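Write out this protein's structure.
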Amino acid sequence: MKTIITTAKAPAPIGPYNQAVLSGNTLYTSGQIAINPESGALVLDDITSETTQVMHNILAILEAAGMTFNHVVKSSIFISNMDDFAEINNVYGSFFNDEIAPARETVQVARLPKNVNVEISVIAVK
């Protein structure tokens, strides 16, 4: 059994997928990019602002499922330039307590949707 999780506080899907799916106690989010859900505009001023918007989008989805970043057990980060890793990591890390930080991989990719610089997805367990 699965439950579709949606919220207006995160960007609407731009394809045939959902913001997140809850299966049992496990939440699987779709990759989030830096779309401001209120304006629909991309936040690409700098990598810090972009990553912050991504993390706020993820938080909105987690909250819609009754969860927080404390529930995240795994995350995947896709970046277009590994030179941005330190700044992305700094913003990402500010949303987690080091003692309960999730497992993670960070991968440089050739291209991301809408030519953004970072996309992040998470798996969380209640």
